[in-house]
Specification:
This protein has 87 residues and is mainly alpha-helical. The protein is built from 6 helices and 3 strands; from the N terminus they run βαααβααβα.
Amino acid sequence: MSSVVVDTDVVSFVFKNHTIGAQYDADLAGRTLIASFMTIAELDRWTIQSKWGEARRNWLRLYLEPFVVIPYNRALCTKWAEVTVAA
Protein backbone atom coordinates (compact mmCIF):
# COMPACT_ATOMS: atom_id res chain seq x y z
CA MET A 1 0.00 0.00 0.00
CA SER A 2 1.35 3.43 -0.89
CA SER A 3 1.37 6.36 1.49
CA VAL A 4 0.84 10.09 1.22
CA VAL A 5 1.69 12.98 3.53
CA VAL A 6 -1.42 15.05 4.15
CA ASP A 7 -1.13 18.67 5.23
CA THR A 8 -3.33 20.50 7.72
CA ASP A 9 -5.60 22.10 5.15
CA VAL A 10 -6.37 18.80 3.46
CA VAL A 11 -7.08 17.08 6.78
CA SER A 12 -9.34 19.97 7.77
CA PHE A 13 -11.30 20.02 4.51
CA VAL A 14 -11.80 16.25 4.47
CA PHE A 15 -12.68 16.10 8.19
CA LYS A 16 -15.30 18.84 7.81
CA ASN A 17 -16.73 17.25 4.64
CA HIS A 18 -16.02 20.50 2.83
CA THR A 19 -16.51 20.47 -0.95
CA ILE A 20 -12.80 21.18 -1.40
CA GLY A 21 -12.03 18.02 0.59
CA ALA A 22 -13.88 15.91 -1.99
CA GLN A 23 -11.25 16.93 -4.54
CA TYR A 24 -8.70 14.89 -2.57
CA ASP A 25 -10.77 11.72 -2.13
CA ALA A 26 -9.26 9.87 -5.10
CA ASP A 27 -5.70 10.77 -4.05
CA LEU A 28 -6.27 9.57 -0.48
CA ALA A 29 -8.36 6.45 -1.09
CA GLY A 30 -6.64 3.21 -0.18
CA ARG A 31 -3.43 4.91 0.92
CA THR A 32 -1.69 5.13 4.27
CA LEU A 33 -2.21 8.71 5.42
CA ILE A 34 0.73 10.43 7.09
CA ALA A 35 0.55 13.66 9.08
CA SER A 36 3.43 15.56 10.59
CA PHE A 37 3.44 16.37 14.27
CA MET A 38 2.92 20.01 13.25
CA THR A 39 -0.35 19.15 11.52
CA ILE A 40 -1.56 17.54 14.73
CA ALA A 41 -0.46 20.62 16.70
CA GLU A 42 -2.26 22.94 14.27
CA LEU A 43 -5.43 20.88 14.55
CA ASP A 44 -5.13 21.04 18.36
CA ARG A 45 -4.81 24.81 18.09
CA TRP A 46 -7.92 24.90 15.93
CA THR A 47 -9.97 23.00 18.53
CA ILE A 48 -8.71 25.17 21.40
CA GLN A 49 -9.20 28.43 19.53
CA SER A 50 -12.69 27.40 18.43
CA LYS A 51 -13.51 26.30 21.99
CA TRP A 52 -14.58 22.84 20.95
CA GLY A 53 -16.22 20.67 23.56
CA GLU A 54 -14.92 17.29 24.66
CA ALA A 55 -17.23 15.35 22.30
CA ARG A 56 -16.14 17.24 19.21
CA ARG A 57 -12.44 17.02 20.16
CA ASN A 58 -12.91 13.28 20.64
CA TRP A 59 -14.50 13.05 17.19
CA LEU A 60 -11.38 14.63 15.68
CA ARG A 61 -9.12 12.36 17.74
CA LEU A 62 -10.95 9.29 16.43
CA TYR A 63 -10.75 10.63 12.89
CA LEU A 64 -6.98 11.02 13.20
CA GLU A 65 -6.34 7.56 14.70
CA PRO A 66 -5.66 5.84 11.35
CA PHE A 67 -3.07 8.47 10.37
CA VAL A 68 0.59 7.68 10.82
CA VAL A 69 2.06 10.65 12.68
CA ILE A 70 5.82 10.93 12.40
CA PRO A 71 7.77 12.04 14.32
CA TYR A 72 5.93 13.60 17.18
CA ASN A 73 5.51 14.07 20.86
CA ARG A 74 1.80 14.51 21.63
CA ALA A 75 2.41 16.67 24.69
CA LEU A 76 4.56 19.00 22.60
CA CYS A 77 1.80 19.38 20.00
CA THR A 78 -0.75 20.30 22.64
CA LYS A 79 1.64 22.70 24.34
CA TRP A 80 2.35 24.41 21.01
CA ALA A 81 -1.40 24.77 20.43
CA GLU A 82 -1.99 26.30 23.86
CA VAL A 83 0.92 28.74 23.55
CA THR A 84 -0.06 29.98 20.10
CA VAL A 85 -3.69 30.51 21.14
CA ALA A 86 -2.55 32.42 24.22
CA ALA A 87 -0.27 34.60 22.08
